[in-house]
């Protein structure tokens, strides 16, 4: 069992599919191949404009995961758009959804680029977190790596935080900048765990930067990876790509042991 779960984000498969009306590449086929290769879960981030994941994909992937007990379904999005309605419908159909990752994206946003801010977001997040948890779903909050924000994330009821890793990924090629970023993430993860939160991470993680991150940042329970992984799969195929990412995770665990 790997110490950090790999959840494959299949947004970019849907993006390619949506450029024609032929239904290829198939999002569920991609997810199946990733699960067969050992991925621990599948992530989708349906955006209101359906530029990649469409609403039917959310249900199609949930149907798929019903046949994969033990693997997790993580749905990301803004709870103040229609993420909660979709989660309710998934649950009403008796389909699995294990985790909702709340992301403070604007409608039409290019990609996610920041986390929730406390105290500003506290009062509006508290009820939607409770509503998601009432469905039996774990809630993770997408957060910048700021140690001072972690106790507040726990105080509004979150189960986990997902540390937004783009600043780390952008700094990775410069050793000094990388070390400084890793220190920041390490402190944020320690603060999150001290507050009683579990720690996820994601955004722009890839085969080059993943192992260093997991070596330096303790106790990351899940990474969700999409853009780079799907780009790698275009060259290597899904199975070889997922296995390569799992090796990155294993290498980090070996380095820590
Ligand atoms: C929350 C997060 O970091 C990812 O879900 C990322 O936003 C992917 O979204 P896109 O694939 O639309 O860029
Ligand atoms: N939560 C992050 C995610 O699902 C994938 O982000 P990226 O690897 O596409 O940047």
From TrEMBL:
Q: Which UniProt keywords apply?
A: Cytoplasm, Pyridoxine biosynthesis, Transferase
Positions annotated as active site in the UniProt record = 45, 76, 203
Q: Indicate the enzyme's highest-level EC class.
A: transferase
The keyword Transcription regulation belongs to this UniProt entry's keyword annotation: no
One function term, GO molecular function aspect: pyridoxine 5'-phosphate synthase activity
Protein's cellular compartments:
Cytoplasm
Q: Which reaction does it catalyse?
A: 3-amino-2-oxopropyl phosphate + 1-deoxy-D-xylulose 5-phosphate = pyridoxine 5'-phosphate + phosphate + 2 H2O + H(+)
Binding of 3-amino-2-oxopropyl phosphate: at which residues? 9, 20, 204, 226-227
The Gene Ontology biological process terms listed for this entry are: pyridoxine biosynthetic process
What does the record give as EC number? 2.6.99.2
Instruction: List residue numbers at the site (Transition state stabilizer).
Output: 162
Kindly tell me the pathway this chain contributes to: Cofactor biosynthesis; pyridoxine 5'-phosphate biosynthesis; pyridoxine 5'-phosphate from D-erythrose 4-phosphate: step 5/5
Q: Which residues cross the membrane?
A: none
User: Looking at the Swiss-Prot or TrEMBL record, what is one Pfam family this protein matches?
Assistant: PdxJ
Residues reported to bind 1-deoxy-D-xylulose 5-phosphate:
47, 52, 111
* A single GO cellular-component term on record: cytosol
Q: Which family does it belong to?
A: Belongs to the PNP synthase family.
User: PANTHER family recorded for this chain?
Assistant: PYRIDOXINE 5'-PHOSPHATE SYNTHASE
What does the UniProt record say this protein does? Catalyzes the complicated ring closure reaction between the two acyclic compounds 1-deoxy-D-xylulose-5-phosphate (DXP) and 3-amino-2-oxopropyl phosphate (1-amino-acetone-3-phosphate or AAP) to form pyridoxine 5'-phosphate (PNP) and inorganic phosphate.
Query: What name does UniProt use for this protein?
Result: Pyridoxine 5'-phosphate synthase
Provide the species name.
Tepidimonas thermarum
What high-level taxonomic lineage is stated for the organism? Bacteria, Pseudomonadati, Pseudomonadota, Betaproteobacteria, Burkholderiales
- The gene that this protein is the product of is pdxJ
């Amino acid at each position: 069992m790997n110490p950090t779960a790999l959840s494959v984000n299949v947004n970019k498969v849907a993006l390619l599919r949506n450029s024609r009306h032929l239904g290829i590449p198939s999002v569920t086929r991609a997810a199946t191949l990733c699960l067969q290769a050992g991925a621990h879960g599948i992530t989708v981030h349906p955006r209101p404009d359906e530029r990649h994941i469409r609403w039917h994909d959310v249900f199609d992937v949930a149907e798929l995961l019903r046949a994969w007990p033990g693997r997790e379904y993580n749905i990301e999005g803004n709870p103040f758009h229609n993420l909660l309605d979709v989660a309710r419908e998934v649950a009403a159909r008796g389909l699995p959804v294990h985790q909702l990752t709340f992301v403070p994206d604007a409608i039409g946003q290019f990609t996610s680029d920041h986390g929730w801010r406390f105290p500003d977001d506290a009062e509006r997040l508290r009820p939607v977190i409770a509503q998601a948890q009432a469905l039996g779903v774990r809630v993770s909050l997408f957060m910048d790596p700021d140690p001072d924000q972690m106790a507040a994330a726990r105080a509004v009821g979150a189960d986990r935080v997902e540390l937004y890793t783009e600043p780390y990924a952008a700094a990775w090629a410069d050793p000094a900048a990388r070390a400084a970023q890793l220190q920041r993430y390490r402190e944020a993860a320690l603060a999150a765990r001290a507050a009683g939160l579990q720690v996820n991470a994601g955004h722009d993680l890839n085969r080059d930067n993943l192992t260093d991150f997991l070596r330096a940042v303790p106790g990351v329970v899940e990474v969700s990876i999409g853009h780079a992984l799907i780009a790698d799969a275009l060259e290597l195929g899904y199975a070889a790509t997922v296995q390569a990412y799992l090796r990155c995770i294993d290498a980090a665990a070996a380095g820590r042991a």
